[in-house]
Amino acid sequence: MDHEAHSCNKFVNMKSQRVKVEGSFAPALEDETETIAHLLAEPKSEYVTVDGVLCCGKENAGKGVDIEDFSCAYDFGLNTYSGGLHSAHPRGRYDELEFGVLDGLLDEVDEVEDIHAINGLASPCDDYLLDIGFTGKASELGFGPCEKSHLGNSSSESQSPRLSGSSNGAVGISESSTVTIQEFECKNNSIDKAVTHEFHGGFRRKKRRRTPVEDNVYPASINLQNLELDNDEKSLSKKSKESNERENCSAVTATQDHSKVRCQNEHHHVSPGILSSVPEEDSISENQTLAEFRTQRKLAKKHASILALESDEQPITSESEDDHVPKKRSRKHDRRKHQRMWTLSEVTTLVDGISEYGVGRWTDIKRVLFSTSAYRTPIDLRDKWRNLLRASCGKKMKKEVEQKEMRALPKSLVRRVRELATVHPYPRQRGKKFAPPILPTPSKSASCDLIRKYVRRKNRS
DNA sequence: TTTAGGG
DNA sequence: CCCTAAA
């Protein structure tokens, strides 16, 4: 509560500064005013729904008043996502506010993301948002999935140190807009909404990247046109491709993940409530059967691979040739797209899992113990364990850098790793389904020999 | 489809 | 973290 209020204050202060600075950009916004006017016509009923959703659990002085300022429910969702500071964004009042002020506010929405990520505020916010997604009824009006898509972005992005820390801010919003588009394409209904949404995405992107020079160049109307003219699967893919191309690889990945989730939902008619409770990839919801889960996962992978393929095949579009983003594209082939530090609790969980299921049962461990960590694949678990083994045995570690990994861990955990290494030698013996919980413990040196053997084999090649 | 191993 | 081969 205090925390939140503090954030708001901080934010408001910043806003004042920005308004001051960006006032000079006001004239450039002129032709957008019409666009905004259209958006303002968004049906009230929808944002009443949002209102209900967002209010649940979050009391906010002045929120009730501010919500009335929002003319577009979807924007509202985005703002909320940006850090729960929605009450500070009277986005809808374009006609009443001066352009300069609005400009500042709009840009600020983008900024909040980063601010929150940096301050570590994102996570609590995520939880809050996720809860909303879980309990909210907005999905009944066809709004829910959209909201959730943002939530999904929020969580995946904010948890990644690299994503939120190093991004210039362009990733988050563009990503959101992209996801939204896909949502509507999957749904294949409500063109009006889709169009409106696309417009928002484009608009905001523009804002974000805007420099006084760039303003004239942005072809928002083209996007709109595309969406209206062919609203089929291809256009969807194409659009997502375009969006992806504009962003760095992190954004691409995130987009795929979320499209995955959403399309699953659409094709299988899973209830929105379930979807909202599973914002991250393919964890099994309580209400899902295993069969359903597997089917969805299969489809999701297919879809993701299609997206990936397309974005590789035709990366060039009129927009991606924009001179302003060449740097981002160079990062595209970066090998490690999403790197996430292993937390202590994750390592502990992994060790627990291995001690329970034995080494090599990576999918089991993932399914049971890492079901909520979408970003940890069974392979990740195995890799981590491999690193732990190498580090714990120590002898073959040439570089201290690698031993840092162990230094960060408590001694007790290191001990457990070593013990586990003795009980469950890493390259699991074939046919050994489950290592007996209690074994005549081989000597520690024996286990280290095994590890050394493994390391040596590696070194030879 | 999962695991192992290499990069 | 990613990719590929093998099981």
Automatic annotation (TrEMBL):
The keyword Phosphoprotein is assigned to this record: no
InterPro entries documented for this protein: Homeodomain-like_sf, Myb_dom, SANT/Myb
Lineage: superkingdom: Eukaryota
Subcellular location: Nucleus
Region (Disordered), start-end ranges: 148-171, 229-259, 310-339, 426-445
Compositionally skewed regions (Basic and acidic residues) per UniProt: 232-248
Gene Ontology CC terms, in alphabetical order: nucleus
Domain (Myb-like) ranges: 334-389
Alphabetized Gene3D superfamilies for the sequence: 1.10.246.220
HTH myb-type domain span: 334-393
Keyword terms: Nucleus
Residue ranges, compositional bias (Basic residues): 326-339
Biased composition (Polar residues): 151-171
Pfam short name (any one): Myb_DNA-binding
Chief localization: nucleus
The UniProt record lists the keyword Protease: no
PANTHER family: MYB-LIKE DNA-BINDING DOMAIN CONTAINING PROTEIN, EXPRESSED, TRF-LIKE 8
Protein name (record): Uncharacterized protein
Organism of origin: Prunus yedoensis var. nudiflora
Lineage: Eukaryota, Viridiplantae, Streptophyta, Embryophyta, Tracheophyta
